[in-house]
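U., I forgot to send this yesterday:
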Amino acid sequence: MTKKAIFGGTFDPIHIGHLYIAYQALYKLNLDKIIFVPSGNPPHKTERIITDSKLRYHMIFEAIKGEKNFELSSYEIEKRGLSYSYETIEYFKNSEKDTEWYFITGVDCLMEIETWKNVDDILSNCKFIVFNRPGYNICDILKWKEFIQNKYKKNIEFLDIPLLDISSTEIKNMIKNGQEVYYLLPKGVDEYIKHKELYI
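Result:
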């Protein structure tokens, strides 16, 4: 059976930390494919200004161009209304029924998963994979992970990998301040940002 993972996020902008996580998941979980799904209209970020979805889509396209194990989906940015993870997972699961689906997300999402819509459907329709992020205590993560697993009777896998302390917010602030960021971005993304004059 084919094993594919959905890797969602705003990717505003996508950076080398995202590719690092994707490759770590690819190798450690023996996945066949990782599908990057830029968020369209996420319900948890309605008050935050997010770069136009088409621009974020093209940045991801530049970042993963030529990577045979990575794909890009426009499902959420073409979908009307709010983007809910349970709907995204159902969409991919229904499109390829003979595929074992994984869902990759940061530990920050695990910590707030009780606020997500249809949590039980999410955990039932995929293997939920969580990677660590700077600022979180391992003991707190594992304790909350155990609580969610016991409550929903579903397994969650914690992908404990070395951290790359890179954030999209920091990159945007650096660009705004006129600092160079090409070393934090995948090939092609820096040129695209400069060409479109983003984040200045």
